[in-house]
Amino acid sequence: MVQNLADFVKQKRKEVNLTQEEFAERAGVALTVIRKIEQGKENLSLSKVNDVLAMFGSKLVPMNIKKIE
User: Is the pLDDT of residue 1 over 60?
Assistant: First the structure.
């Protein structure tokens, strides 16, 4: 099953029993970053997202997708 970023972060945060505020502090990001991720906002900084995902040993990387003609 493919999980979207918002669901993944929310689920993992709840597994470690942290509030959004506590999680933001431990991840070293602003609370608004956690809220935007969990709300599924699309305008996010990749570096901030990776700061959050590092808490779970994960990261996002850009993909080059070639258009097939």
Answer: no
- Calpha distance 50→55 (Å, rounded): 9
**Cα–Cα distance, 17 to 64 (Å, whole number):** 36
Q: Do residues 40 and 6 make contact, with C-beta atoms less than 8 angstroms apart?
A: yes
SS3 26: helix
What gap in Å lies between CA 25 and CA 64, rounded to an integer?
33
For residue range 20-53, what is the model confidence (pLDDT) as tens digits?
999 999 999 999 999 999 999 888 888 898 899 8
Q: Say what the pTM is.
A: 0.75
Measuring CA to CA, how many Å separate 61 from each of 20, 28, 46, 58, 64?
24, 20, 8, 10, 10
